[in-house]
Amino acid sequence: MQGRVSIRRNMPRPRARSASATGAGALARQRASPEGLWETLGGETERGRSSIMRYGIGGGRLRRRLYFRPRRTAPPPSHRPMRSRKMHRSVQRLKLAPTWPAYVAAVALLLLGGGTARAEEYWYRIELGGTPAGWMVAREAEQAGRRISESSTRLALKRGGTTLSLEMASRFVESADGKPLRAWTRQLLGQAPIERRYEFLADGVRVVTEQGGERREERRPLPDGEWLTPFAAQGEIRRQLAAGADRFTIRTLDPQLGLQVVEVTWQRQAGVRRAAVNGEEREVYRFLQRLSYAPALETTIDVTADGLPVRTTTPLMGLEMTAVLTDRETALETAGAPELLVQSFVYPDRPIERPREARRAVYRVKSNNGGVLVLPSTGSQRAEPREDGVRVTVAVGSSPPVDRRGLELQEYLRASTFIDHRAPAIRRLLAQATAGLPADAGDAARAEALRAFVGDYLSEKNLNSLLATATEVAASRAGDCTEHSVLLTALLRAAGIPARVVTGLVYVDHFAGSAELFGYHMWSQALVGDRWLDLDATTPRPFDAAHLAFSTTALNDDQGALLEMASIVPLIGALEVDVLEVEY
What we know:
Number of domains: 2
Number of helices: 10
Oligomer: single chain
Number of strands: 27
Largest sheet: 14 strands, antiparallel
């Protein structure tokens, strides 16, 4: 991944705040009970049932320079109410899609420290800001010399009045001596679940992906270096705890995050204490966990001497996401659906007039908790770290040249689950979108034609899906910024133009009852010649300077969509943006 953002800090424990808790946590077409999940959605297993962890788990140039007066005082409420003035027409088309539900899914996936391998069934109640939001169950079995680890998680969240059910399932089969044999995952990010099977061979990994009747098979390299399977990782954790280790690192792999090895660092925070664990008095240790791909994503974990997580806590958007060991009945109690949309907004020190017309803008971006922020220089954006934050300059059309020989261009031309550009539906749309172009049209003209086409093609702008595949978007013609971005990126690759997606912020005049804010957003970048060109299919113009990029990703299967998104988690609810200059 290029351009990943990271933020390094000693994160203080935020004060928990309550959130609204209305809505159901289950999909209408799915059985409500966990047993229904095991029976209806699983692949074959040695026990005759399989765990399901699904997630649904959103012309001419007029130059004018403005130098602003000192910071105005923001109103005390957590969000600014919508003003009564007429909405700028450019906002009517832009459908902001907070991408934070995907980040929440990434946190939920890792709440229990990269796997809870147990000989029994363990249930966890998940809360956000003190509001019940879902559950997790972990199971393990040993049969015929094989060890099988399974887990299932369900969360319910609301964004803008729309309830999203985030559900995930996985299983991992390994030999008695810790060699990986097979893995299986099931995910629901759009309209249809994505099922993926991994077979570990001597010279690589055979990966089969299925969704909506389509099947794709590919051979991927074995994960780099030495790493531990779930059972072996749990055994190493127990050994380190028994030895009284204050700090240790586990290198493991979770197929939900693709085939990238993840390093989980454990740092002791407190000595041994006695605590009640499901009615039994046990010794409990407290550790702080950090993940290699998101070092600022810090999780506090209380664990027993035999490695059983009792409670985990992760700061998220000014709240705390917790998973607490409990009994099955308590875990499955009707969950709420916390409304987190407003929590993700970033309010700058002053408004940006006519944001869709901004050609150049200068910002100061900083962490509001004293951390050191690192932002990428990519496309139209240049980021310069300073003592008072990061000075970010966004100038439309100013992307510097890159050395194409130093890029792995095939990474930005590959077909993947989300960017499935080889699908017949995508090929048909490509022909439709470029029908009016001359035969000798260059990549820049074709890229802009595709961007404009996607903006018009998605006739229904809504927040009903978290991250649909390009083929799903082609069929539904609906979605938010994530759907615009994946479809545009797929069309660009289908046209032979290397492309990737960008996550960050975009400024809007009004959204979800609030005004003058930055919201989390996704758009595309196309490699035209030797320059990365920013393209936003949700805006009337190709791009404007009211965007802030945080990360880029090819969104390929082996990278792991959630892993790529998780690096953004520490930023949500922890940023301040000052608008220094704007030119039109």
